[in-house]
Write a structure and sequence with these properties.
Length: about 210
Amino acid sequence: MKKRILLMFAAVATLSVCLTATSMAQSVKSTFVHLGRGVPGVLYEPVTPGPKAEIAVIAMHPSGDYLTATPCLELAKRGYRTLGANCSTSKSGFISDNDQDKMLLNVKAAVAYLRKYPGVKKILLFGHSGGGGLMASYANISENGVKVCQDSEKLVPCPDTLADMPPVDGLMLIDANFSGGAMALFSLDPAIVSENNGQVLNPDLDMYN
Protein backbone atom coordinates (compact mmCIF):
# COMPACT_ATOMS: atom_id res chain seq x y z
CA MET A 1 0.00 0.00 0.00
CA LYS A 2 2.83 2.41 0.93
CA LYS A 3 4.61 1.60 -2.33
CA ARG A 4 1.46 2.33 -4.30
CA ILE A 5 0.99 5.67 -2.52
CA LEU A 6 4.62 6.61 -3.18
CA LEU A 7 4.27 5.79 -6.88
CA MET A 8 1.10 7.88 -7.09
CA PHE A 9 2.86 10.76 -5.34
CA ALA A 10 5.82 10.53 -7.75
CA ALA A 11 3.48 10.52 -10.76
CA VAL A 12 1.60 13.58 -9.48
CA ALA A 13 4.90 15.39 -8.75
CA THR A 14 6.22 14.63 -12.24
CA LEU A 15 2.98 15.81 -13.87
CA SER A 16 3.11 18.99 -11.80
CA VAL A 17 6.67 19.73 -12.95
CA CYS A 18 5.74 19.11 -16.61
CA LEU A 19 2.68 21.33 -16.40
CA THR A 20 4.69 24.08 -14.69
CA ALA A 21 7.41 23.92 -17.38
CA THR A 22 4.78 24.03 -20.15
CA SER A 23 3.05 26.96 -18.49
CA MET A 24 6.32 28.85 -18.14
CA ALA A 25 7.19 28.25 -21.81
CA GLN A 26 3.78 29.56 -22.91
CA SER A 27 4.37 32.73 -20.88
CA VAL A 28 7.30 33.70 -23.13
CA LYS A 29 7.18 35.16 -26.63
CA SER A 30 10.09 35.28 -29.06
CA THR A 31 10.73 37.79 -31.85
CA PHE A 32 13.35 37.67 -34.61
CA VAL A 33 15.63 40.70 -34.56
CA HIS A 34 17.96 41.84 -37.36
CA LEU A 35 20.84 43.58 -35.57
CA GLY A 36 23.03 44.00 -38.62
CA ARG A 37 24.57 42.27 -41.61
CA GLY A 38 25.12 38.65 -40.61
CA VAL A 39 24.01 39.33 -37.02
CA PRO A 40 20.59 37.74 -36.45
CA GLY A 41 19.05 37.68 -33.01
CA VAL A 42 16.00 36.43 -31.14
CA LEU A 43 14.42 38.50 -28.39
CA TYR A 44 12.75 36.51 -25.63
CA GLU A 45 10.41 38.31 -23.27
CA PRO A 46 7.51 37.56 -20.91
CA VAL A 47 4.08 37.81 -22.48
CA THR A 48 3.06 39.81 -19.43
CA PRO A 49 6.16 41.81 -18.42
CA GLY A 50 6.76 42.39 -14.73
CA PRO A 51 9.42 44.39 -12.85
CA LYS A 52 12.18 41.95 -13.85
CA ALA A 53 11.53 42.67 -17.52
CA GLU A 54 13.19 46.05 -17.01
CA ILE A 55 16.45 44.08 -16.98
CA ALA A 56 17.61 42.77 -20.36
CA VAL A 57 20.34 40.16 -20.79
CA ILE A 58 22.45 39.80 -23.95
CA ALA A 59 23.90 36.34 -24.66
CA MET A 60 26.48 36.00 -27.44
CA HIS A 61 29.45 33.77 -28.22
CA PRO A 62 32.36 34.14 -30.69
CA SER A 63 31.63 30.86 -32.45
CA GLY A 64 28.34 29.44 -31.19
CA ASP A 65 24.73 29.58 -32.35
CA TYR A 66 22.94 31.52 -29.61
CA LEU A 67 19.59 32.08 -31.30
CA THR A 68 18.07 29.24 -29.28
CA ALA A 69 20.54 29.16 -26.38
CA THR A 70 19.04 27.62 -23.25
CA PRO A 71 19.83 30.59 -20.95
CA CYS A 72 17.79 32.92 -23.15
CA LEU A 73 14.56 30.97 -22.77
CA GLU A 74 15.15 30.05 -19.13
CA LEU A 75 15.85 33.65 -18.07
CA ALA A 76 12.78 34.83 -19.98
CA LYS A 77 10.67 32.21 -18.20
CA ARG A 78 11.78 33.83 -14.97
CA GLY A 79 10.68 37.29 -16.04
CA TYR A 80 13.73 38.84 -17.72
CA ARG A 81 14.07 40.01 -21.30
CA THR A 82 16.89 38.22 -23.08
CA LEU A 83 18.47 38.73 -26.48
CA GLY A 84 20.35 35.80 -27.98
CA ALA A 85 22.36 36.72 -31.05
CA ASN A 86 24.93 35.14 -33.33
CA CYS A 87 28.14 37.12 -33.13
CA SER A 88 29.43 36.15 -36.55
CA THR A 89 31.43 38.06 -39.13
CA SER A 90 29.84 36.41 -42.16
CA LYS A 91 26.67 37.01 -44.15
CA SER A 92 25.26 33.67 -42.99
CA GLY A 93 24.96 34.77 -39.39
CA PHE A 94 26.77 31.72 -38.09
CA ILE A 95 30.38 31.33 -39.31
CA SER A 96 32.97 33.61 -37.72
CA ASP A 97 36.60 34.38 -38.42
CA ASN A 98 37.14 35.15 -34.71
CA ASP A 99 38.02 38.78 -35.41
CA GLN A 100 37.15 40.16 -31.99
CA ASP A 101 37.26 43.78 -33.13
CA LYS A 102 34.42 43.01 -35.55
CA MET A 103 32.52 40.90 -33.04
CA LEU A 104 32.63 43.65 -30.43
CA LEU A 105 30.75 45.85 -32.89
CA ASN A 106 28.11 43.11 -33.09
CA VAL A 107 27.73 43.26 -29.31
CA LYS A 108 27.49 47.04 -29.65
CA ALA A 109 24.58 46.61 -32.07
CA ALA A 110 22.77 44.41 -29.55
CA VAL A 111 23.34 46.89 -26.71
CA ALA A 112 22.20 49.82 -28.87
CA TYR A 113 19.04 47.91 -29.85
CA LEU A 114 18.08 47.21 -26.24
CA ARG A 115 18.88 50.76 -25.09
CA LYS A 116 16.05 51.93 -27.35
CA TYR A 117 13.69 49.06 -26.49
CA PRO A 118 10.60 50.19 -24.53
CA GLY A 119 10.63 49.09 -20.91
CA VAL A 120 14.33 48.19 -20.69
CA LYS A 121 16.21 50.11 -17.99
CA LYS A 122 19.28 47.94 -17.38
CA ILE A 123 21.39 45.74 -19.65
CA LEU A 124 23.55 42.82 -18.54
CA LEU A 125 26.03 40.83 -20.64
CA PHE A 126 25.97 37.02 -20.39
CA GLY A 127 29.42 35.59 -21.11
CA HIS A 128 29.51 31.80 -21.14
CA SER A 129 32.65 29.79 -21.96
CA GLY A 130 34.35 31.50 -24.92
CA GLY A 131 31.82 34.31 -24.67
CA GLY A 132 33.37 35.38 -21.39
CA GLY A 133 36.38 37.07 -22.97
CA LEU A 134 34.24 38.75 -25.61
CA MET A 135 31.74 40.17 -23.13
CA ALA A 136 34.41 41.16 -20.58
CA SER A 137 36.29 43.00 -23.33
CA TYR A 138 33.15 44.89 -24.34
CA ALA A 139 32.35 45.83 -20.74
CA ASN A 140 35.91 47.06 -20.18
CA ILE A 141 36.19 49.15 -23.35
CA SER A 142 32.67 50.59 -23.14
CA GLU A 143 33.20 51.67 -19.53
CA ASN A 144 36.80 52.89 -19.66
CA GLY A 145 37.17 54.01 -23.27
CA VAL A 146 39.09 52.70 -26.23
CA LYS A 147 42.41 53.77 -24.67
CA VAL A 148 42.38 50.65 -22.47
CA CYS A 149 43.11 48.50 -25.51
CA GLN A 150 45.51 50.84 -27.28
CA ASP A 151 48.37 51.24 -24.82
CA SER A 152 51.98 50.26 -25.57
CA GLU A 153 51.63 46.87 -23.80
CA LYS A 154 49.18 45.61 -26.42
CA LEU A 155 50.74 43.54 -29.21
CA VAL A 156 47.82 44.47 -31.48
CA PRO A 157 46.08 47.67 -30.35
CA CYS A 158 42.36 47.80 -31.02
CA PRO A 159 41.04 50.20 -33.69
CA ASP A 160 39.29 53.51 -33.12
CA THR A 161 36.08 51.93 -34.43
CA LEU A 162 35.56 50.57 -30.90
CA ALA A 163 35.28 54.07 -29.44
CA ASP A 164 31.97 55.30 -28.05
CA MET A 165 30.43 51.87 -27.44
CA PRO A 166 27.40 52.27 -25.15
CA PRO A 167 28.19 50.93 -21.65
CA VAL A 168 26.21 48.21 -19.90
CA ASP A 169 25.06 47.85 -16.31
CA GLY A 170 26.55 44.48 -15.46
CA LEU A 171 28.50 41.43 -16.61
CA MET A 172 27.91 37.75 -15.87
CA LEU A 173 30.79 35.34 -16.43
CA ILE A 174 29.30 31.83 -16.46
CA ASP A 175 31.94 29.07 -16.60
CA ALA A 176 33.96 31.47 -18.73
CA ASN A 177 37.45 30.82 -20.06
CA PHE A 178 40.28 33.25 -20.80
CA SER A 179 39.15 33.95 -24.40
CA GLY A 180 40.28 32.44 -27.70
CA GLY A 181 43.82 33.83 -27.79
CA ALA A 182 44.74 32.68 -24.29
CA MET A 183 43.12 29.26 -24.69
CA ALA A 184 45.00 28.70 -27.95
CA LEU A 185 48.25 29.60 -26.19
CA PHE A 186 47.49 27.19 -23.34
CA SER A 187 46.82 24.45 -25.89
CA LEU A 188 50.26 24.63 -27.48
CA ASP A 189 52.54 21.68 -26.71
CA PRO A 190 56.24 22.65 -26.95
CA ALA A 191 57.23 18.96 -27.18
CA ILE A 192 55.70 18.52 -30.65
CA VAL A 193 58.52 18.40 -33.21
CA SER A 194 56.40 18.62 -36.36
CA GLU A 195 52.95 20.05 -36.99
CA ASN A 196 52.41 17.14 -39.40
CA ASN A 197 52.63 14.47 -36.70
CA GLY A 198 51.60 15.16 -33.13
CA GLN A 199 53.03 11.84 -31.95
CA VAL A 200 56.64 12.81 -32.67
CA LEU A 201 57.80 14.50 -29.46
CA ASN A 202 60.95 15.98 -28.01
CA PRO A 203 61.41 13.98 -24.78
CA ASP A 204 63.16 16.92 -23.07
CA LEU A 205 59.99 19.01 -23.42
CA ASP A 206 57.41 16.24 -22.95
CA MET A 207 55.56 16.89 -19.69
CA TYR A 208 54.53 13.23 -19.53
CA ASN A 209 58.05 11.86 -19.97
